[in-house]
Amino acid sequence: MLTLLLDGVAYGMLLFVLASGLSVTLGLMNFINLAHGAFAMVGGYVTALLMNRAGAPFLLTLPAAFLIPAILGVALERTLYRRLYGASPLDQVLFTIGLVLMAMPIAAYLIGDEPQQVHLPAWLSGRIEVHGVGIGVYRLFIILVCGIIAAALQTFLVKTRFGAQLRAAVDDARVAQGLGINVDRIFAVAFAVGSGLAGLGGALAADVVGGIDPSFPVKFLVTFLIVVTVGGSNGIMGALFGSLLLGVLDVAGKYYVPSIGAFIIYAVMVVTLIVRPQGLFARGDGR
What share of the chain is helix, strand, coil (3-state, %, to 5)? Predict the structure, then answer.
């Protein structure tokens, strides 16, 4: 039982890193970026290709898995995304879904359809026994790394001047600009952080999901949305708690009732939308 709980927590922490960037753009910036999974795919490919073709150590690929999607996110934000900040939600959905449908064949053309595997170093492989409980070493690594990321992101967005400026820019960009806040730069940095976190999550998830392939953005798109729906989109901590809840329920459900295990998280989403549409862990009324 404890093993399942730890596996569920590890999966939930991984979901948080994958979905936290969407929480930033959707919850804090009011922009529906359904192309979020494409940045995760880029990060996964960066790690897989650096390891398999350049022989880079796993840990050294992780900064690149963050930086390259972050730079790509800034480039797209400056050239494309900023044109739709005031657009309707439907326009944003159609636009970002279009980016996903473009990214998939581009990845297939450049890299191929075969999944790119990530081979973990020996010190991250295997399991350890603690009082008779088997714990995967890589699961513990994910819990530690993602916990640090969650704490750093919460501090960055809530406790710093940047976070206050971001909330002010979203509430009223003209007033914020009149107060001397560089709204364009704030939005660019927010998109960079969100895209980079997605890429880092894709790199960390590559081994867990059995490799990265061009269909990755679509396979996990619904999961990202469920995390934000259940956790609430107006805060990072809501996404964290929602991810942990869904991770534990998903792992436990697939173990105890494998025939309907995946159904559980969808049921949780439906109940959440009926009972508390703003999210189970949203503060106040949500958005």
Answer: 75, 5, 25
